[in-house]
From TrEMBL:
It is found in: Cell membrane. Keywords: Cell membrane, Membrane, Transmembrane, Transmembrane helix. The chain crosses the membrane at residues 20-49, 56-77, 116-135, 142-168, 174-194. It is a multi-pass membrane protein. Belongs to the DedA family. This is VTT domain-containing protein.
């Protein structure tokens, strides 16, 4: 999910104008919890590197740096201010505190995997840092998983656009990557919600 006025054309124009800063700040803000299209920004950076406008190693460096720093900001925001906000948000959607506690426990049990692999999942890339802070994931464990995940994600996205950008249109590449991320999101949602639903069914008295 991203802000609608950040179309692919707008992102390309910003990347043309501001180069590495556009890539760095876009990814940093998304990973800090702001719903910007960081994935698209990374692909555009790799595409421009493939066309010779930007330098591939520098695009990779700023993408990794933006992802790591952004997620660190999100982590500390979640740790100190995230749970009260989540409770208010849950109340708005009529989700009880016990249900949120259960979801937090589910996340805590798999926090390392969520932070490491979450970058390839739509929305989770935005919220993994704040959620890790809310779940009180040990910071050094978070930092290790965050850095490793950022390095792999950025390398895959930048290299993919760098190599494939000349073979297929950039908008098609962005669409394919977005579909993969959305599918991954559906799998993650099912992985979280199905155990909660089964647990609630197990404690529900039988209607005889």
């Amino acid at each position: 999910m991203s802000l609608e006025f950040f179309s692919l054309e707008t992102i390309q124009e910003l990347a043309h104008q501001y180069g590495y800063w556009a890539v760095f700040l876009g990814i940093l803000l998304e990973n800090a919890g702001i719903p910007l299209p960081g994935e698209t920004i990374t692909l555009v950076g790799g595409f421009l590197a493939g066309s010779g406008e930007l330098n591939y190693p520098w695009v990779l460096v700023v993408a990794i740096a933006g992802a790591v720093l952004g997620d660190n900001c999100g982590y500390w925001i979640g740790r100190y201010a995230g749970w009260p906000f989540l409770l208010r948000l849950g109340g708005f959607f009529r989700i009880s505190e016990s249900q949120l506690d259960q979801a937090k426990t589910q996340f805590s049990q798999n926090a390392a995997k969520a932070v490491f692999l979450g970058r390839f999942v739509a929305l989770l890339r935005i919220f993994a840092g704040p959620l890790a802070g809310i779940a009180r994931m040990p910071y050094f464990q978070f930092l290790l998983c965050n850095t490793a995940g950022a390095a792999i994600w950025a390398t895959v996205m930048v290299t993919l656009a760098f190599l494939v950008g000349h073979l297929i249109p950039l908008d098609e590449l962005v669409a394919w990557v977005a579909k993969f991320a959305a599918l991954a999101l559906l799998l993650v949602v099912a992985w979280i919600l199905v155990p909660i639903w089964m647990e609630s069914r197990r404690h529900k008295p039988d209607n005889l």
